[in-house]
Amino acid sequence: MPEMPEVQGLVDFVGRRAHGLHVTKAAVANIAALKTYDPPVEALRGAEIVGATRHGKFVDLTTRAGDGGELHLVFHLAKAGWLRWYDALPATVIKPGRTPIALRVGFDDGSGFDLTEAGTKKSLAVYVVRTPADVPGIARLGPDPLDPAFDREAFAALLAGRRTQIKGVLRDQSIIAGVGNAYSDEILHAARMSPYALAAGLDDVEVDRLYGALRDTIADAVATASGKPPADLKDAKRRGMQVHGRRGEACPVCGDEVRSVFFADNSLEYCPTCQTGGKTLADRRLSRLLK
């Protein structure tokens, strides 16, 4: 799943490449992906791209029509979505229901992009709105972890009283925006903390350590993604992972074997030596450490 660093990379790339271009094509191939009807997607045609912004894991392309009015093309790539950029947009006709393409956008210099989604479970979402706050998912977002206003005290206030496993807190977009399964594994590994630790049970030293790991891990990943074209972002993400997606490999910090806990539709990875005092976590969502 694309998370904040990769989404920021997409925003930087598309914002730089498409700025000042005019939309000539906005074709929806998967009607289920389009979550809004007013304004219609056709209203984007002829509009100029004037900005690109990220809200959590949402990409927001700001357009300006000839009358000066703004419209926002907002999309969330969900678990299996991606943006495929073309310097020369293909001329092939998109056949709805027979393609992984959810949306195709073309510009007046011949370039453009497709939003694609792999697999049979389709969750990619596209919105055409007058203001980003009209997107329910954006309206519910918690603070951005790289916002200068998100200091250690603000972070501690979010954790206080939450008898929730810290892995779930980091992934909850209404608490902290932009962090998902992969980077929460990386943050907890950097903080030397069990994913099953309760947020409300952390002492001041642990909060300090977790806050530093959160900010540093995300900032480093954003810096790595910066300037890379969409085609390179996924590989850059994988190369930067210390534990996520590395089950069975040696932890780069201590050399212990990276372990996994499997759930219904995903898994988490961790290092027992670095994070759980050498104990292996049971493979159940609500389990405590094995005795």
From TrEMBL:
Pfam families: Fapy_DNA_glyco, H2TH, zf-FPG_IleRS
Ranges where the Formamidopyrimidine-DNA glycosylase catalytic domain occurs: 2-100
FPG-type domain residues: 242-276
Similarity field: Belongs to the FPG family.
Names of required cofactors: Zn(2+)
Protein name from the UniProt record: Fpg/Nei family DNA glycosylase
Keyword annotations: DNA damage, DNA repair, DNA-binding, Glycosidase, Hydrolase, Lyase, Metal-binding, Multifunctional enzyme, Zinc, Zinc-finger
Gene3D superfamilies: 1.10.8.50, MutM-like, N-terminal
DNA damage is among the record's keywords: yes
PANTHER family: FORMAMIDOPYRIMIDINE-DNA GLYCOSYLASE
Catalytic activity: Hydrolysis of DNA containing ring-opened 7-methylguanine residues, releasing 2,6-diamino-4-hydroxy-5-(N-methyl)formamidopyrimidine
Species in which this protein is naturally found: Microbacterium pullorum
Organism lineage string: Bacteria, Bacillati, Actinomycetota, Actinomycetes, Micrococcales
Annotated InterPro entries: FPG_cat, FPG_N, H2TH_FPG, Ribosomal_uS13-like_H2TH, Znf_DNA_glyclase/AP_lyase, Znf_FPG/IleRS
